[in-house]
Design a protein that fits this description.
77% helix
Length: 207
């Protein structure tokens, strides 16, 4: 099993995770402003949770993967700064409660510190690949959102996702059957939670 094999096996699930009316609204400019504001605040919460969970991935990573995972951690710190700046520009309070859907995603990622490394690195790759695919589908984006599309479609981010895929491929290549099963389940859960996150930002609801 490889990361590419997972994308093929769960093509419909992945399509649902990376194609959504929210993203179509980004592409056309028809996205309702409340949905975008909700996404920005909740994505900030999500990135903070991903930062904490990725630290566990780094702790478990073999020597060959450490630089890739560590550089990703630094990028997440920069991303928090970037999101804070955009929130200030829009007068958004980032101290609002985390939405239950976002909390569910963060809790899942944090729970992976008990999973074998192949599952951890596969889930991390899936998170980042989902964003690459989702924002690529929204490219170039309408002017209000073009900077956001550009951030997750730029060559440096695509290269990072490719590097994570290489890490996941190595891990899966030497994994036991039980570890491969855990990685597959982690991939599927990431795809389900990505879809749920877009639904949350689009539909709103309780925080």
């Amino acid at each position: 099993m490889s990361p590419q094999a997972l994308l093929l096996r769960y093509r419909a699930l992945w399509e649902a995770a990376t194609r959504h009316p929210f993203l179509e609204g980004v592409r056309t400019g028809a996205l309702p402003e409340p949905a975008f504001r909700r996404w920005l605040v909740q994505d900030y919460h999500f990135v903070g949770g991903l930062l904490a969970s990725q630290a566990y991935v780094l702790a478990a990573a073999p020597r060959a993967d450490q630089r890739v995972v560590a550089l990703g951690l630094v990028a997440l710190v920069d991303e928090l700064d970037w999101l804070e700046g955009h929130a200030r520009e829009r007068g958004l309070a980032l101290e609002v409660p985390i939405h239950s859907t976002c909390q569910e995603y963060v809790d899942f990622l944090r729970s992976l510190h008990r999973a074998p490394y192949p599952a951890q690195i596969t889930a991390l790759w899936a998170c980042e690949r989902a964003y690459l695919d989702a924002w690529t589908g929204a490219a170039p984006g309408a002017e209000p959102y073009r900077e956001f599309v550009r951030r997750w479609t730029q060559p440096a981010f695509a290269q990072y996702v490719t590097a994570l895929e290489s890490c996941a491929s190595r891990a899966l290549g030497t994994a036991s059957a039980a570890e491969r099963e855990a990685a597959e389940q982690a991939f599927r859960r990431v795809a389900e939670l990505e879809r749920a996150f877009w639904e949350m930002t689009w539909e709103g609801g309780e925080p």
